[in-house]
Amino acid sequence: MNYYFITGTSKGLGKAITEQLLKDENNFVFGYSRNNVITHKNYYHKLIDLNNLEALKKIQFPVLNNPEKVVLINNAGSVGDINHVGEIDNDQIIACYNINLIAPAIITNNFVSAYKNISNEKLIINISSGAGKSAIDGWSTYCSAKSGIDMFSKVFAEEIKIDNTNFKVLSLAPGIIDTGMQVQIRNSKVNGFSNLDRFIEYKKNGDLASAEETANKVIRFVSENELQAETICSVRDL
Predict the structure, then answer these.
(1) Which residues, in sequence order, are CB contacts of 136 under 8 Å at separation 6+?
(2) What domains does the chain contain, in order, with CATH numbers?
(3) What is the DSSP code (8-state) at residue 236?
(4) CA-based torsion, 30, 148, 81, 178: positive or negative
(5) Could you read off the pLDDT of 110-163 as tens digits, one per residue?
(6) What is the Cα 23 distance to its own chain's centre?
């Protein structure tokens, strides 16, 4: 059995990845999000708010008997309060860093601790963003959090080499997807985000990938070893 642990499974990319994986009866998925929208015999849901750090610290991964593959996908994300520094809601700053950076760091830490002695294939995919490599006004917390998850992944990759463990880690940018996050971006104000018109045009021109299309690409990075050579990667590499 292949075991997958995925955050943000109630909507968007996380939901699409989960539904694709569950088409294979040899896959079992553990989902983590505030809502459960999936019912399947090979799916277990943990209700959790990833902004709740005390709850996050208590996450315990189950003992697995002879797994073929164990995969963690830190997918959940939030663009936060789209506004210029000086105008951002402080609680939104905290939440954005918690969800995009601190939560995946804590979950990864617990995952590695739980499964470091398993000899079978172990993969961690941190869903990153091109925003982690570009300065986009209005997205200071989101850009810096995604840049942080890239560096977290790169450091962990170096530690894997030093410790000679059989983990693999990827920080994978999924491209621009037609999800609720894009709706939030399009509903922002131009005085807090100068690129608003460009994102409105993405939708009008049909430039947004579907969650299902992107999920298939993410799963390719899970299943195709040749795509796992570089820690920092993108679905646009396909």
Answers:
(1) 142, 143, 193, 195
(2) 2-175+210-237 (3.40.50.720)
(3) G
(4) negative
(5) 999 999 999 899 999 999 999 999 999 999 999 999 999 999 999 999 999 999
(6) 21
CA distance 33 to 180: 15
* Average pLDDT estimate for 210-232: 97
Q: Which amino acid is residue 216, in one-letter code?
A: N
- H, E, C per residue of 75-113: CCCCCCCCCCCCCCCHHHHHHHHHHHHHHHHHHHHHHHH
The number of beta carbons lying within 10 Å of the beta carbon of residue 191 is 11
Known catalytic residue: 115? Answer: no
| Mean of per-residue pLDDT scores for the chain | 96
> In DSSP terms, which residues pair with 47 in a beta bridge?
33
Kindly list the distances between the CA atom of residue 125 and the CA atoms of 18, 58, 207, 235, in Å, as whole numbers in the listed order: 14, 21, 25, 12
d(CA 211, CA 41): 23
Check 44, 97, 142, 202 and give the catalytic one.
Answer: 142
pLDDT tens figures, 82-106: 999 999 999 999 999 999 999 999 9
Q: Is the pTM of this model over 0.85?
A: yes
How far from the centroid of its chain's Cα atoms is residue 4's Cα?
Answer: 13
